[in-house]
Design a protein that fits this description.
It is a single chain. The chain folds into 2 domains: 219 residues, PmbA/TldD superfamily (PmbA/TldD fold), CATH 3.30.2290; 232 residues, no CATH class. Helices cover 23% and strands 40% of the residues. It has 11 helices and 21 strands. The strands form 4 sheets. Strands 1, 2, 3, 4, 5, 6 and 7 form a 7-stranded mixed sheet that branches. It is globular.
Amino acid sequence: MAFKDILQHLVQRNSGYLELRWHKRISNSFLATKGRVDIANHSVTEGVGVRALIDGAWGFAATSDVSEAAIKRAIEQANANASLLAKARGFRHVELRKGKLSTQDFIGEGFAELQGMSIADKLGKVIELERNLATSSPRIHTARARYTEYLEEKAIVTSDGARCSMKIAQPEVSLSAIAEKDGQRATGGRGAGVSGGWSCLFRHPTLGNVIDDIAKTTIDLLDAKYPEGGRKKCILAPAVVGLLCHEAIGHTVEADFVKAGSIAAGKIGEDVASPLVTMADTGNESIAGYAVGNLPFDDEGVETENTIIIKDGKLASYLHNRESAAEFGVNPTGNARAWLFSDEPLIRMRNTYIVPGKSKLVDMISEIDDGYLIEGAGSGQADSNGEFMFGCSHVWEIKKGKKVNMLREATLSGIAFDVLKTVDAVSSEFQWDLGTGHCGKGQPAKVDAGGPYIRCEINIGGRQS
């Protein structure tokens, strides 16, 4: 009997609201440096998470024993936990909006391909990538290649109608290099992740000419100067646009953060960006392919959709789970996600992006007299007010409509909605470019972000050379 059928049988025997989620994950991760694999990790996790709702209180329990008897015990524990909490704090009304509860059995592209490949073949490719990068120039001091894959299987059944299953693959690869000259060092790197198989991953546009691009950029940075600080007219590359969308805006429109008082609270229908800006979060990418955050349904069994967050400059929607959707009087958006079977679903992003426009990058550059093209998105931070500070490994100086010099180690800062209000051009070129690593919000999540090139005014910081 399939797990979905077992869960369906158990749900039918429960009197209140019940949500059962079986999850099995196989993960493999390799790190190659100096011509060998330094780290090789393999893990398998499997179990069932149970949520019960009684008198407005949630109870949760989980078990790594997937026998029917163990799942029954977890159900009893979740119900007991919910009852205890309801008694402790008193009754409160909780409504769950159904939205479109999934009944599909989904098998994602590339799952069988990745599952059928040998570990040796994957290790060989990782070692080859590292070796090619390490030998691409005498200036390359150290090279690293990291590969990670997740093979996910889930079945979700709820007492009010969800009955779905999925198999998806999420591989990713990232390369980095350190170049050295006269005691001076510079670092560079690129990576990509997809919802798909091995072939899909290595067709990702970010990985085109990746060895030569990393080597050249890293070596050029050895002689690069630092940018001049101040408020500048800048063009943000897709990875930087994705970073801004995810970190500085996306989190502020997650409904749990909205309820806690984020800058987006109460602003539905208000102007928060230039009319040229439309921003969305989707579980079914359909613009450029190769996004890692694709999901057929979320961890409450709600089918995912393309949620328009900002439409023509006006705030249009928050990101919801079933409970927050009922509170706000809207439909759930399919953003409830849990990392492991032992985690409760949280409101999380999937693939967050700005919709492409009509301008061309070359024209956007030609219209700048003094500014920067911002590339090399790095790490950063943002708060609930949308205030952010991001690091970038490199930028291009633009003078009189031409890219002239690569500069190193810039920082970007500002308030996200204020920056978006200055956007005066959005390119037709588009790319997903943040598909490696994880988003953190109490628990990890695989997400992606990207967009077109956008031209705006932003605070840029550097230092004197």
